[in-house]
Hints:
The chain has 14 helices and eleven strands.
Amino acid sequence: MRKNSATEIDIQSIAKTLKTIMGEDEVENVARSTGFLRRKRVLVPYALVLALLSTLGVGKADWIADILRAYNALTGSSLRYKPFHNQLKKWQFPEWMRQVLETALMKLTLDVLEPLPDSKLQMFDDIVMHDGTSFAVKASLKKSFPGRFKKVSPAAVELHVTMSGFSGSPESITLVPDKESERHFRPEAETLKNRLALEDSGFQDKKYFIEIDEADGSFIIRGTKNIKPLILEAYDENGIRLPYLEGKKLSQRRLPRQSVDLKIGWGKKDREYIGRLVVIYKAGRRNKKDYTYLHTNLAREIFTIREVGTLYRLRWQIELLFLEWKSHANLHKFDTGKEAIAEGLIWASVLASVFQRYITHAAELITQVELSTRRAASSTLHYLPGIIEALLSLSLRRIIRAIKSALEFLRTNAMRAHPKRDRAKGRLQAGLRPVATA
């Protein structure tokens, strides 16, 4: 049985976990270790974290003043804008937020999906997706965060994220200027041992494929259509050899109107990569041929063309995560030219989403009802404020009561719309099942 299964958690354990991670002692210890808190001030660190969760995790927030108002409302303070702003612009603020988020990523994670007992996916410890999401920040930050598109977005950032498919939560996040090459931030090959990595075409790299294979990892990485490897072996969808393609360079003109499974030799002889390339066919507009290239080291004898394509579609889950961050956790450009504030609010926005997903996943496991994280994230106004106010009180009894109320709300208002369709066509068709209903 995997850790964090439905039989191992209950409302009290969830309440204790939240009280520890978001509580006064833990948050203030991190604030002191980073230098954000040096002496007692009117601004209370753990109350500020809760105000950030309340502002960024509930509704729409566009201004720093929105966070100040939330803080004053939660604490009954009358803190003014200038001293509040002076605290956020300290360079220690983003490091403090990053470390609070790092703790949350380690401890606010629950496995909600697992392979079916007879599934081929039992061979993997996890399925991980990696990608990046970028957005503009205030143009005056262009020296700190130069963007790729100077005229449109002179200042922009990119978050490089590795996400667990079984927990539906990010494992690691790196924040860099958008101008940086994404290949530098992909998962290291040794971290993929016994795991399946799904990545987009930006990570097509022969050396990387070899490194993952040597580390006993697996991958499905999308390829670009401009590569011209030598076709060593070719098979159709039924496993029948296609000798007329073999010994020739890959060219879409030569490919048939069907998916093919290729063994390719790519690169110079002294640095040649020998690997599997699955080419999936779909009819294009005006009857033009259209193909998707998928590099993989999954064995042809175990995973068919169709199964490789189905597995790769799981990568869409990380795109849905990014959409959730931007739509329901206020990951966007704030009107600030202060680098520390801009970066700190980015980490706080992601923290708000991690907090939301943890509550949703806990509700799914405890109520044993399949829930939609999108529906839950769009409904935070109706359950999150109660939990935040209870956390502010530091009363375990109040926190338990607030979580009970939230779980009941989510059970009846955030159910997945089409669980049967998920199994036939959606995220479960590759051989997964929800832990909650297993």
